[in-house]
Amino acid sequence: MKPSIIRDIKKSESGHRKIEWVKGYMPVLSAIEQEFLSEKPFLNKRIVMSIHLEAKTAYLAKVLKSGGAEVSITGSNPLSTQDDVAAALVEDGLNVYSWYNSTDEEYNEHLNAALDINPHIVIDDGGDLVHLLHSTRKDLIKDVIGGCEETTTGVLRLRSREREGLLSFPMISVNDAFCKYLFDNRYGTGQSVWDGIMRTTNLIVAGKNVVVLGYGWCGKGVAMKAKGLGANVIVCEVDPIKAIEAYMDGFRVMPSIEAAKIGDMFVTVTGCSKVLTEEHYAVMKNGAVMANAGHFDVEVWKPDLEAAATEKKVMRNNIMGYVMGDGRILNLLAEGRLVNLAAGDGHPAEIMDMSFALQALCAKHINEKSAALRNKVYNVPDEIDKKVAYMKLKAMNIGIDSLTKEQEEYLKGWGE
């Protein structure tokens, strides 16, 4: 392994404090850590991770290390790495390759350096590690037994590979687990997106026309939180079923070109590219604010924005103003990258407690069952999903009912 690549080891003290803070609000992952310390399920295994490198991810990496693994970690977005957290992980004995505001070249260098661990298990967020393993780092595939994917965009890429018969090892879609998308995608994205937007702009949301482009689980959360903040919410969709759902949830629904004329704030959350383009920029209001909550910085299409602008100027930290030919200024947050991480701290700790508990247990499942798994994308086993849910309820001191044997038989039968 190469030596760790980080900005400054002297920043570690605040990183340790951040990790300890979130650990106090992640009881499920803490319980799994105790299991791993006792069982050592990853003894003699090497795990590579590419997830937004902040405190909650750092704690997941430490939990995997507590299970006996050698862990190599890098970020999954050039603007989401927190340098003090990276430094703290190096002091804790992990291999770390990431720093904030990396160039494209540095970002790829960090991914490749992390892969130099020659991994057995891959934990990915967006699919960059899997892509490299199937392209320029094919030499490492022979030792990979499988992995887990965290987010919608990465799962889409995996399923595309699977359809074409090009997936070389089994992957578990953590993103599609109930304990992930119902909470992380909806409540986590909903809150953290508005945390990022509000702390960056210092503007009020109440009374504004907020346009949410995409009404999947993440879009639902963004729209719900905007409504709670007093915004007039408009939803734009390409799926007719989701459009009806948005309408029945109380939101206005219209084509994006119509919404562009009246929107004050725009949040793209589709997982697709070129969601806001030249035609939208031509009709937007002066002072419009655009933010992206999809994994890649391709939803607010920057080449069109650059081409339309006669001038660019920094308005505030993490806000670039694009001056149009008629004098209007369109504001883009965090370079069009994930606003909740590039301009904030990401999802709340209590939410990531469940998502990262799933990651830890699914990595263990891959390690134990890899010989029986084919090169395809698997859903999270139901028993793991429910285990995390029960552990979370216990941590919150919430009890629920259970079916009697008679009720179980009634639900199984058809005669009564």
From TrEMBL:
What's the superkingdom here?
Bacteria
Q: Which family does it belong to?
A: Belongs to the adenosylhomocysteinase family.
Q: Which cofactor does it need?
A: NAD(+)
What sequence ranges are listed for the domain S-adenosyl-L-homocysteine hydrolase NAD binding? 185-346
Q: Which gene encodes it?
A: ahcY
Q: A Pfam family matched by this chain, by name?
A: AdoHcyase
Instruction: Spell out the protein name for this chain.
Output: Adenosylhomocysteinase
What UniProt keywords are attached to this protein's entry?
Hydrolase, NAD, One-carbon metabolism
- Gene Ontology biological process terms in this record: one-carbon metabolic process; S-adenosylmethionine cycle
What taxonomic ancestry is recorded? Bacteria, Bacillati, Bacillota, Clostridia, Eubacteriales
User: Can you quote a single GO CC term?
Assistant: cytosol
PANTHER family, per database record: ADENOSYLHOMOCYSTEINASE
Q: Which amino acid positions bind NAD(+), per UniProt?
A: 151-153, 216-221, 237, 293-295, 340, 347
Which EC numbers characterise this protein's activity in its record? 3.13.2.1
Catalytic activity annotated for this protein?
S-adenosyl-L-homocysteine + H2O = L-homocysteine + adenosine
Query: What CDD domains does the database record attribute to this sequence?
Result: SAHH
For this protein, the record's PROSITE patterns field holds: ADOHCYASE_1, ADOHCYASE_2
**Annotated GO MF terms:** adenosylhomocysteinase activity
- How many cofactor units bind, and how? Binds 1 NAD(+) per subunit.
Give the organism the record lists. Oxobacter pfennigii
Q: Please name the pathway.
A: Amino-acid biosynthesis; L-homocysteine biosynthesis; L-homocysteine from S-adenosyl-L-homocysteine: step 1/1
